[in-house]
Structure formats: structure tokens, C-alpha cells
Amino acid sequence: MTKFSDLGLAETLLRALVHEGYETPTSIQAQAIPYLMQGRDLLGIAQTGTGKTAAFALPILNRLLEDRRRPAPFTTRALILAPTRELAAQIADSFRAYGQFMRPSVGVIVGGVSHRPQVEMLSRGLEVLVATPGRLLDHVASGRLKLAATQILVLDEADHMLDLGFILPIRQIVSKLPRERQTLLFSATMPKEIAGLAADMLHEPAEVSVTPVATTAERVDQHVFLVDGGAKRDILVELMSDAQVARAIVFTRTKRGADRVAQHLGAAGVGAEAIHGNKSQNQRLRALDGFRRGHTRVLVATDIAARGIDVDGVTHVVNYELPETPEAYVHRIGRTARAGASGRAISLCDNGERPLLRQIEKLTRQTLAFTDRRSAEARHEEAKPAPRNRNAGAPKGDGGNRNGRPQPSREGQHRDGSRPNGARPARAEKSRGRRTAFGG
Predict the structure, then answer these.
(1) Which among 32, 200, 206, 254 is least surrounded, fewest beta carbons within 10 Å?
(2) Which element (helix H / strand E) includes 326?
(3) Consecutive 10-residue runs of the chain (440 residues): their mean pLDDT?
(4) Strands 272-275 and 316-319
């Protein structure tokens, strides 16, 4: 079994790892760190929760230890780009924790806060700068940050940055960096855009993949509730009343939806806070800190937070609404079952979301167990056999068949008898899968 001491890390870093309770490297750490210690570029495919922050932070800190020269004002030696403010702050905290006995100068540049403190921080020069692309470019454009002396570039959660539209800002940032640098790109999935970006940015990279592309965490017990859309709120309150739900994240598609769900839970006596892009940075940090400390039991979030929440002890993830892209499902449920723990993921799926459910099952190559919680009327309606068309040759618009009898209605069906939006053919569905703590 590989040990951290086998990876060539400095004693200062090994002591910090012991202090933080790290015993053995994860798969991504054991595979990536040796390449990075050699100074090679790297393409890493790994889900969140696999320990990839330490996989790149430890070799960077080791390199800084070997050469502790003071960075010039308004420069940084290592630049880490992250898609969200929360993730940027957590990466910076990890650098500080692993470097606690060497005290590197670490800064965070994100939007939503005042420029002045950031300018003052940059004026002192930084060994490590963690930033979101938009605000970083603001400082580059104003001349308050120069990247010509940056030796290391890390793109973390690269696929999420592309989802958020950061591809052009990333290319602008890369154009300001020196050609001679070490570049690391980490992504949970590998769409064509990421492959193209890696080909442009990386030089003869080592490739490390610790999980199959777009697979869900093995320790997450996944279950689906088929529900009527109007019943979601009440079912969610029922779920949150279960004593086994010690700490939960509920995901919605929209910011307004997150606020409404949090308010509904609060009115039902369930402590909940919403976190999304319309909240100020201070509001988001307070909500996340309260959740991490256990003051708030439920955090309601949009997908912007799906890969920016790194909190141990999340027992449950609830998809109040299924995401529009199946990849987001993988990242959402990755918020539980972290650090070797197990977790549960519950998805509330109404009839209009059934195509999204099938996309998730196709991407993850699995069939999710479900419990039918819809009304008897909804189940009965779906169980009705599709009407037979015995008059294919009847003239259009005659309002009936050749014998003058009314034509069976085909409203809500395609010409081949299938349902709109990719819904399943009409049939009676029985609950399958084992019983769950949520009545499944």
C-alpha cells in the first residue's frame, strides 16, 4: 500500500498531513503526485470527493518549499482557477491546511466582493492565488495582476467552468501566461470540449483517471420517487422529518425555486438556508458555514453549488427537481458519501421529468430503483391502454370514422402512439427496489 512518505513529499508537508488526520493517499493522489513531482503536465479525470485537491496542492507546495523566493508585487507563482466562489475558498483553505508549517502566502480572488482588499493583497505578491476567471480578468485588465511570472496553472472542475461559459475567459488567461509552465487540468467528466482544451493547453501530459467517466459514487444509495408535481413540497417535508437525515442538501433548478423551498421547509419547522448566485458572497459564506457547523440541517442549492460544497457528513442529497443535464446529477449526488462514508440520494421525479430521468440512467449506465408516490388518478391514467386507430385511411377533419362513430381521442400522443417528451408507453408500474427509510 502506498504511503504519503513514499511520494517524495517534504517532511513539513508530511507533518501537516498527520496533523490533518491523513493516513494513506487516495487513488488520485497516489497516481497523480509522482507525475507532478516530476514537473509534468497532467490531465486528471476524477469525481469530487476523491481527494484531488490534495493531489495538486501537495506537489505545488513541495515545489514552493524548494524555492521560497519572495514573489514580486502583483504576481503569483501558482494560479488555480475554479468555477465558483465556494470552491475557490475551499481550495485556498486546503492549501493553508497542508502548508500550515510553511505558511505560504495564499490569496482568493472572486466576484461579489470589494476590489480594494483584493488589490491590497495582490500588491504584496502571492505564492498561491485561487480565483474565479471573471474577477481574475478584471485585475489583469487593470494591470493589478501580472501573470508573466506564473509557473503553475491548475484548472479545477474544468467541465463545470465550460458549463458556466468560461471557455473564452480561460483562453484569455492562458494567453497571458508564459509558455514554459506546468499545467494541470482536472475534470469529473470528459466531453469533447475538455479534450480540445487539454490538447491546446497541455504538453505531453500524463493522464490519470480514477473513476469511469460520468459514473456515480459507489457508496451512494440512489432512489427515485415518482410524484405528482404539486405534491413535491409535502413529500420533501416528509423526507426531512426522518431522523436519519442528519445533514441534507436539496437541489433545485432555479434561484427563486431554492428560496421558495427553503421558506417552505422553514415554515414546516425544518431549519433550512438557500444558497445560489443571487446571494451576496457574505450571505453564501454564512449559509455554508452554518451548514458546515451543524447550525442548519438543510441547505437548498442550485447547480452552481453542486461542485462547490465540500462538507463532510452530508447524509442525504435530494433532487427536488432533476437537472437539465445528466452530468449535473453525478455532481449533485457527489456531495454525499465523501471521505469514505456512505450516503443516500433521493430524486423527486414528476411526469414531465421522466425524459430527464432516462437521460441520467443512460449516462450513468444504470437503472434507478423507484417508488411510485403519485396519486391513484395519475397511476390509473397512465395504466390506460393506448387507443387503437382502426381508421388510418379516414379523411382528415371528418370528426369520426367511416361509420360515423366518434374517433377515439389521440390528444397527448404522437402518431406512432408514443407519449410526448419521450414519456414511457402507457403501462401499470409497480414499485421496485427495496424499502427505504423514506417509505420506499
Answers:
(1) 200
(2) helix 326-333
(3) 90 96 91 97 84 95 94 98 90 96 96 92 97 96 96 92 86 95 90 86 93 60 93 95 93 94 95 88 85 93 73 92 88 77 91 94 89 83 66 44 41 39 40 40
(4) unpaired
What are residue 260's phi and psi, to 5 degrees? -65, -40
220's grid cell: 451512494
pLDDT, residue 425, reads 41
What distance in Å separates the CA atoms of residue 25 and residue 23, rounded to the nearest whole number?
A: 7
CB atoms within 10 A of CB 260: 15
Backbone angles phi, psi at 132, to 5 degrees: -90, 145
Give the pLDDT confidence score for residue 308 in this predicted structure: 62
| Count of helix runs (H) and strand runs (E) in the chain | 15, 14
Q: What is residue 422's predicted lDDT score, i.e. its pLDDT?
A: 42
- The amino acid that residue 194 corresponds to is I
Coil/strand/helix, residue 190: coil
Cα gap 424→370, rounded to integer Å:
14
Would you list the DSSP string of 231-276? GHHHHHHHHHTSTT-SSEEEE-SSHHHHHHHHHHHHHTT--EEEE-
Amino acid, single-letter form, for residue 277: G
What's the predicted TM-score (pTM) here?
0.66
User: HEC states along 3-52?
Assistant: CHHHHCCCHHHHHHHHHCCCCCCCHHHHHHHHHHHCCCCEEEECCCCCCH
At 332 the pLDDT is 87
Helix axes 133-141, 115-123, angle to 10 degrees: 70
Distance CA 6, CA 107 (A): 30
Instruction: Set out the domains of the chain in order of their start, with CATH numbers.
Output: 4-209 (3.40.50.300), 220-379 (3.40.50.300)
For residue 190, the model assigns a pLDDT of 77
What does the CA dihedral 108, 112, 115, 117 come to, rounded to 10 degrees? -50
In which order are the strands placed within the sheet that holds 206-209? 106-109, 126-131, 76-81, 152-155, 182-187, 42-45, 206-209
Predicted pLDDT at 426: 38
* N residues, the chain: 440
